[in-house]
Amino acid sequence: MSVSGADNQVGLQSLSLPDLSGVVPTSTEARAKRRIAALEEELENMRQERGIKQRKTTYYVAQGRAIRRMVVLYTSLEDLVAKNNHRYEEGSPEDNTTEQDHLQCGYIVLTQVLPWLHAKLGQLDIDECQDMMKQLKRGADAARGDDTSTLKDLIASWLDDKQMRGFVRDICGNLLCPSEVKAGIRDRTVDYIVLENSWPLFLYEKYMVNYGNLKQGLFKSKILVQAFKAIFTSPSSTREADGDGDGADILENNRHAQRQLNQAKVKTCVASIINMRKVTPRSIAYVVCQVRFALSNISSWCTIDGDFDYEGFWNNVVDFFEDVPGPVTQCRVNQLLEW
């Protein structure tokens, strides 16, 4: 090779660029270990996310168990939220219907029973809101189903009438009859349609009606107090109900009994779990509908039983306590709630 050729080769070598890719040789084993570590970290993150979602689901389901018992028995949560949004956007016109007012009142009670819900609705996206509503409804319906099953058996044992229910039975039939008329309904000798606008006998103290004053003794029956205790405290507490004025102390008596156990572990009652501190109009309406269903001969929960509308019946009970015509009636209602 000539001198000039050698010089050119040296020049080319001096001009060649170094490897700028930054790649550092590694072994196959090291790369596999790092990949496994990354996959394990990803899997752990997925487990944590699944755990968080499961805890949220459990929380929403548990919170939902208060809805049917304390807020609304039939109305959907979506309808309550939609009505509140609509009224906020459109204002509160004077020509609102009774149904619209029921929905708005229902939303107000809902935010009182679940104080966190209103803010949460504004924080979540649409899919998250729908999932939350689904889980709340799941808890609400499960609680109602549990109470229905419990009362069907309990009321049958209280009345010693386990074989048949409905108007054809002596005991259940008498209790289901409207307060203003009874003769002829059970044996179908009169053409009378039992509707939700009448107060049945099972609501009255000692199951007797003063026809001169149909409000006397209303919502003071023994079976109503027993059912309230069975749902909100415990089935065993129903043995203490005598129907003679202990209704006001149902929740306080239960708390007192728990304190007397001197730190002994006991099952927390439903009232404590759902943070219910007093008897409310809607909790009474819930129990009334549950008792009426337990006395009837229908086997699955429904809104309509023949000509009887349970949703309308529930609204009538709520209106009796919440939609009072004046201060005198309000005073009587307050006394009844404190009874």
Relevant terms:
14 helices; mainly alpha; 339 residues; DUF6698; two-stranded antiparallel ribbon; 58% helix; elongated; coiled coil
What does this protein structure show overall?
This protein is mostly helical and 339 residues long. It has one domain (49-338). The protein has 14 helices and 2 strands. It has helices spanning 3-15, 28-64, 67-70, 77-90, 98-113, 117-123, 126-159, 170-176, 222-232, 250-259, 270-273, 281-295, 310-322, 327-338, and strands at residues 304-305, 308-309. The protein has a two-stranded antiparallel sheet. Helix 4 (77-90) packs across helix 5, helix 9 (222-232) packs across helix 12 and helix 12 (281-295) packs antiparallel against helix 13. The chain starts with a helix and ends with a helix. Keywords: Coiled coil. Residues 29-56 form a coiled coil. InterPro entries: DUF6698.
How many helices does DSSP assign?
14
How would a textbook summarize the main sheet? 2 strands, antiparallel
- Low-confidence parts: 243-248, 260-265
Please estimate the helix content: 55-70%
Beta strand count = 2
Percent in strands: under 5%
**Structural class, judged by helices and strands?**
mainly alpha
